[in-house]
Structure formats: C-alpha cells, structure tokens
Amino acid sequence: MTSTRLEDLPHELFFIIFTYFNGVDLCLAFSNLNTRIDRLLFNVASHQSLDLTSGSVSYNAFRAYITDRYGVRSSFISSLKFDCLSLSPFGINDLFSSLMDTSIDNRLQRLTLITSEYVSVKTTEIIKFLEHMMIANKQGRGRLEHLTLTFENCNDYYAKIVTMIIQRNISFGTMILNVTKYIFKSPLNTKMYISPNETNMHIAIDSRPSLVNTVRLTLSLQYCSDLVLLLQRGVLPLIQQLNVTFERRNPHVDSRPVRFKVDEKNLLTTDTARLRKLSLRNLPMHYALQFVRFLYLTQLESLHLVDIFDNEIRCLAEFERAISIRLYNLVNLQFVLHFQFDTVLQNNEWNMWQGLDLLKNDLWQSRGWFANDYIDTDEKRFIVYTVPYALSYVRFLRNHTFIAAQQPNSVDLKTDQLLLWTCTDSNPSEVAQSLKGLSQARHLRWNFEAMVSPLVLSSSSNIDSAMRWPEMQLRSLCLLMNSQIHIEDRANIITQMLLICPRLRTLAVLSKELALCLKQKPALTHLSLDHLHLYLDMVQDMVDPVALAVIFPNISYFSTGKWYLKMDINLAHVVLDLIKVLPYLRRLRFNDCNFFYEGNIDQSADYIVEMIQNSEQL
C-alpha cells in the first residue's frame, strides 16, 4: 500500500481544504511549508479581508499572523479594518511597522481606521504611515486605493488630521473621512484664506495642495466656502465623486455659514469638469443654488442634496429652474429640503402648494424625479423630498413622526450612521412601530425622556402584534432613560433590547440599571458584545463581574464614564475582578483611568494587586 504525502495532493483538493479556514488560520497553518503551497495561498488569500473590530479575529492571533520572520503573511492582506481605541500604542506601532515593511510585496488595497482624540498613538505616526503608503504606491510597491478614516467628532483632532493630509498632499483613489457627530472647527481654518487684495479667491498655503490621485472624496467641513477652496484648479484634478457634509451645531440658526463671500467670481475659478456624482448635506438653499448655477457640472450624473434649508418656499421655482437648465445630463436626483412651517404659512399658504406644482412638471416626472411633501409638527418644518425619504438622510429623530414620513415599499432604512432618537411619547404601539422602522439601522442613541415605560410585558404569547418589539440589526446602542421611570422597568427595557439585538457589539447604559438587569438573571448570552460602556457615579453601583461574564463572556473593552472616579482600593478590586472573569479583556478605562493589556494578563493583574497592597499610595 502506497502512502500519499501532503504535497502530492492535487491543486483542486487544496482549494477545497482552504475553504474550511478563515484567512488568519489558513496562513498560520499553511504558509512557508513549501514553494508550491505558498503559490496556492497567494491565489486564495491575496484577496482576504480582515476586520479586527468584528471579534472574529483576535488581535493576538493577528499579531502572530503578521510577524512571521519572512514577512510573507502581511502580503496576503488586501483589506484591513481596525479600531485605534481597541489597541495599545505598542499594538498600533507593530501594525504600522508590519505594513510599512519594504521587504514584502504589500497587497493592501483597502484600509479602514477608526480613530479619535482619545487614541494613545500620536497623530504624526498616523500621518507618517499614510505618507509611506502613498510613496509605496508611487514606487510600485503598494496598492492602497481605498482609505477610510472614521472619527467620533469633527473637532480639533479631526481638523488637525485633515489639515495635515491636505498640506502633505496625501492622496489615494478613494478617501472617506467619516464623522459620526458634529464639527465645531474647520480643518482648513488655519492655513487657507482669501487674500483681501485679490479679486479671485486662491489658496494661501506654504505649498499649494494637490491631491492628484483622489477620484472619490468624502469629508466634513464647517463652512460652505471651504468647499470652494478644495475645488480650486489643481487641488482635485481627477475628482469624480464628492460627498461633503457641512457640520454645525444648529444649521437652521447659524448666521455664519461661510468664512468669506461665495459668489460667481469665486466659483468660476473652480475645476469640476470631471465631477459625475455630487452629494451636499446640511447647508442653506442660497449656497446650494450658487453651486448648481456657477460650478461647471456638465458631466454630473447624480446629485444628492440632503437637509437643505430655507425660510421662503418661493425659492423652489429658482431651484427647479437651475437644475432643469444647468444639469442637462443629470440622471439621478434626490433631495430633502426643509422650510420653517410658520414662516411659510405667514407668507402665503398658496405659494407652498404652487411651489410643489413646479417640482411635479412633466419634464421631472419623465426623468423619474417625483417630489413629495411632509409636515413635521414636532420640529415645525415643512419638508419637500424625493422618493425615498430614507433614514440615511436623517441624523436626529424625535418621537415617531419620521415613521409617518416613510413611503411604503420604496424606502431603504438601512443606514450605518449614528441615529439620535429623542422620545417623549411612550405610546407602546407607536414605540414598537418606530423600532420596526429602525430595525435595519446599525447605530442608535436612544434618549427615552417619557416618564412611563413603553414596554408591554406578558407571560403569554397573546400580546398585540402592534406592541411587539421586532428583532433589530443594531451593532451599537446607547440607551438613556428618564430616571422617573421605575428602575425595574428600566432594567426590563434593557433586557428586551438585548433580546431583540442579537448582533449588538457595543452597549452603553446606566450601570445601576444593568446591574439590576443582571440580578434578574435573564435567559440569554450575548456572545457578540465586544465593548461595554457604563455610566457610573459611584463604585457601589458597579455591576457584578461574575454575572457580567455570564451574559457577556467575550468583552474585550470595558469602560465607564460620567463623573470623575478616584482610583481607590474599591475600584482597584473591581479592576482585578474584571480581569479574572473576562478572559478576552484587552482594555479597561474607568472614567479618567486607563489600563492597556499586552501579552500575559497575569502581569496586569499583579500590577493591580500591587496597587491594592500599597493602599497608602492610593
């Protein structure tokens, strides 16, 4: 009987075997065995995507994966996503170093990096890494074409990152600078300005920025005039898709949406001849009309205008005329326009309906553009929109009126942005209906301000279907409830949300509410939850670590916040207990206290024990 060696197996059988491994395990098991198997791995694994935020691949396994002495495994990665808040500064530097190794054939094509001002790695290190990847592209050693940077806030940290990217001409084919909240400082504020002695606007910067490789760009700005700066000739010469959100705390009362006058002379110095898709969000109608009228948009095929606001409904006539005449190649048009309802009624209600008739002409309907209207009684706004009026256009929700605005069978409610839902109406059927409308959303901050619980509990299955909460696709949930609601009812709401959100990865709730929820011993185990954040006033309100580990055994990031907590013996004991019962814990943050974990967990535990023993120093 002849024996068959592993290397004697045919290619087809290897390919079948490879399908039973994830990317990391596959390369850890088979790479560097021999030249033939390495070639097969390149065919299979050179397009693998690794998401270090999903929980499917631990950081330690990934670190072992990329630090082989031949550097072969790093060249397998084509797409990578990681969260700087979940890694220590040493872990981030190791990751950057492995991807910057000039001795390997780097095949990384897509990179998603989640960051904020709280990360421990220096901003210059991130910029240095991006510069290296761009230089590698120019020299033919790199392939990075799609860069996504996600920020929690558009503040000074965001401004610093974006300004450095522009100043150093860091440019990739697709650049997406996502923001989940609001901005209060422009990234172009310190270096770009209008010279008062010049008739035409120009960029005054040490070296004229030129993002020559960027074809698709998404970012947030504070002022409409900053967009004009970026559209100057030579800055974005290849731009074809542009998505800009103008971030302000309250755009409807902001009296300074620009830092310099935006007029025809300024706009005629721009270069938008190649632009095919334009999305603008959160700006006055006056500036939206100027962009449409004076930018050179002859090749524009898709236009999205979201949360455009004005007081006068009569501007709809000019809006319709500008789009119909200037954008003759336009195929896809979607918009959401907001008008102050009281102002509209004061001027003339007849003008309101007459303005809508202008948008329902034969030309627009023949091109598939259908305008609708909706009155938001809570916000006192008259909204004009095209189908669909999707939640992807909405950031702030109030009560349940957004559900009434949905068009049946024509709305895609799936959205990856953070939705802020303030609810003062506790009607059980209304709350259940709103949850159904949000069932495909990924990130939700729910501020429940009503004084009565909306949850209807029943031991039988005869509960009215209109009041039954549906299963949701949430990945992150921040749930804050009115303290007037009995704490047992608040705990029941948390339990119910855990039951209907099986894919939840991040949860933020009041500590004493979750503590009572765990004491009730709910019959569930949340394996997907990776990050738990508790609003904590006193250490005495901390949840039981043992009960916590039963419900959420895979937590890797535990944090608290609200008020300042002094690092005393009680808190040190809590830290030690959490380390003991949560085997995957990598990072702890107690309000202003930070703990990072690398290597052996016992070393960190010994450190906490030493702090307890030296209690006189606490």
UniProtKB/TrEMBL annotation:
F-box domain: residues covered: 3-50
Q: Where is the signal peptide?
A: none
Q: Which UniProt keywords apply?
A: Membrane, Transmembrane, Transmembrane helix
* Keyword Protein biosynthesis found: no
Spans traversing the lipid bilayer: 13-33
Q: Which InterPro entries match?
A: F-box_dom (IPR001810), UPF0759_sf (IPR036520)
Keyword Transmembrane part of the UniProt annotation: yes
Q: What is this protein called?
A: F-box domain-containing protein
